[in-house]
Structure formats: C-alpha cells, structure tokens
Amino acid sequence: MKKLITILAIIPMLILALCPPMDMALDCRIDSTFWLWMTLISGFLAFLFLYQDVSNWLKLFVIWTYIMCFFSKAPFMSFTMFWSVIVCAYYYALCRKIVHWSYVKKTIQAIFFFFALLIIIQLFGKDTLLNFNQNTPTVIGTIGNRMIASSFVCILAPFLIFNPLNWLVLILISFISWSSGAVLSIGAGLSVYAWARFKKVRLWIVIIAILAPIVFAYKTGDFSKATIRAGRLPVYQKTLELAIQKPLGYGIGTYKILFPVMCGREINKQSPGKMWNTTHNDWLQILFECGFPGLILLLGWLVSIVRNVKNPVKLAGLAIVAVNMAVHFPTHMIQSAFLIIMFLAYCSQGEQE
C-alpha cells in the first residue's frame, strides 16, 4: 500500500513535468451548471481539508483563499482558479504519506537526464523534435524560453543535490541558460549547503556564490533591463503599491487580468502590461492576490516546515526554491507546481527517509 501511494503521487508529477509547450485554457462559462457544481464542491473540499493531517497554517490558508473568492475583483476567475488550490492542497496531503522517497528521487533524476539531453541537442542545433528546421531554438528542454527552462531546472534541483555531482551540472546549466535568476537561485542553495558542510572554506564559497550572480547579471545586461520603465523593479514596486491599497487581496488568479489594466500603460506604453501577466516574483503575486493575511498564513506554514529541517541538503533545496520564486514564477508553471509541493511534503517529514 505504501508503494502504491508513492506511485500514485509520482504519476501526476511526472506527467506535468513532461508537459510540452502548448496553449491551455479552462473552457467553462459563468452560466454553466458544471462550473457552479465544481465551485460548490471545491468549497466543501476546502472545509473537509481541515481534517487532513497537515499544518493548521495551510488549512487556514486554503479556507482564506476560498473566502476571498467572494470578495475578489474578478470572482469568476478566482472561483475557477480555486479548483487548482484544492488539487494542490490534497496532492500535498497525499505526498505527506510517501515513505519510499528513493523512487521519487530516481524519477526526478531521470527527468533531469532527459531534460539535459534535450538541452545539449538543442545547443548543437540538432533538435528535430521541438525545434525542427530552426537554427535558434525557441523551445529549451521541453518547456519554452531560457528563463522558464532554467526555472524548471531550479525546481528539479532540490531532489537532485542529494547527489553531490549534480551540483556541477546544475551550476553549468544555470550559466548556459543565460538566466541571472537561475544563477542566483543555485548560488543561494550552494551557500546554504556550503555553510553547513565545508566549515573551513564556507565563507569563500558563500562570497563566490554571491558575487557570481552579480557579475553575471552585469555581463548579461539584466541589471539595466530590470531598472528600465518596463523592467522588473518598476513592476515589483507597482505590485507592492497596489497590494497595500487593497491589503486583503484582489483574489487568486486575478493578477494577469487586473495588472495590465491597472498599470499597463504606466509600465510600458508600447505594449501595455501584456508582458506582465505574472509578476516574475511569486511572493509579491501571492501578496497581490491573497493579501497580507494570505501571505502571512502561507509563510507561517513554510516556517513550520523549515524549523524542523536539519538536513543541509534539504535546507539548500528550500533556499533554491525560495529564491527562484523571488525572481521567476515557478508556482505558476504547470511543470513545477507539483514538484514544489512534493519537496515541501518531503521536508515536512523532518529527518525521516
């Protein structure tokens, strides 16, 4: 039975991790009986979740996000997106029951090998699967552009760094991807890992891990791109200002339709807000959508997990995910969401294997 639970948890994670680049849409109407039925069921499941063996912080977060749907600036969008919250919440409860984590690690290692193979083939211009007849790849790995692909690799990383050799490959891919966010994420994880494992040289490793992303961002021009009018820093600032204006939140799933309307012309006159349907910072987007109460509940849950973790490899994995969420949007990528949930479930079990 325990092996069956592990397999049941691995299958959806694997399917989503291998999801190819494609347009996805939830086809439902506001006057649909199916939509109303699913919304009512999801509300019931939110309260049934109170009886799951998980942190009370997470239980309250799920309830809060459902209540906020009624006060959302786009209720239809929020009620629809809440279905995914319920799926993720119960998937976390399922992953908490996993005992055979070696199966999970081997599966994710295989995903990584496959992803790395595709990247190598694409770098040599020999990809006849996803980039047929294209001299410059438009799809990296199985996903999309370099930033999205590098973010996915960072989310795979927590289950890979249990093998020290994988650190070298991850560092190499983070630089090859030409993503400052990936270099920063892996550098943060390496700093945490080195601080616990290499006491004699840990300070030097941390200094290098901090300087490398700074130099890399300067060389790639990411610093200048982040500060321009349509760059990330102005978007972060406007997102925070809007969140303060409505501290209880605008409702889950509303950022991509509200921010372009509210700030699009101010951020980018040439393409008003279209490129900013995500914040490129999950923490700020959670604040915008779920409000300060939602962010506090979520952080309370995460702190309850971290405080029981002593393994430096797990702590390094948590650092990689946290930093990547601050510069990318992995929780809004279908390929990454279940991987993050599975790793949090692994860490929540303390030092059990």
Description:
The protein contains 15 helices and no strands. It has 353 residues and is mostly helical. It has one domain (2-17, 30-348). Helix 6 runs antiparallel to helix 14 (312-327) and helix 14 packs antiparallel against helix 15. The longest helix is centred in the last third of the chain and has 25 residues, at 282-306. The radius of gyration is 20 Å and the shape is globular. The two termini are 17 Å apart. Mean pLDDT is 86; it is low at 270-274.
* Sheet having the most strands: none
Low-confidence stretches: 270-274
Distance from N terminus to C terminus (CA atoms, Å) equals 17 Å
Count the domains: 1
Number of strands: 0
Task: Determine the number of helices (DSSP H or I, runs of at least 4 residues).
Answer: 15
Helix content: 55-70%
Helix and strand sequence: HHHHHHHHHHHHHHH
Share of residues in strands: under 5%
Mean pLDDT, rounded to whole units? Answer: 86
The value of Rg in angstroms is 20 Å
SS content category: mainly alpha
In short:
With 353 residues, this protein is mainly alpha-helical. Helices cover 69% and strands 0% of the residues.
Keywords:
0% strand; single chain; 353 residues; mainly alpha; 69% helix; globular
Write the layout of secondary structure elements.
Layout: H1 2-17, H2 33-48, H3 56-69, H4 75-95, H5 101-123, H6 146-160, H7 165-176, H8 180-197, H9 202-220, H10 222-227, H11 232-245, H12 255-267, H13 282-306, H14 312-327, H15 334-348
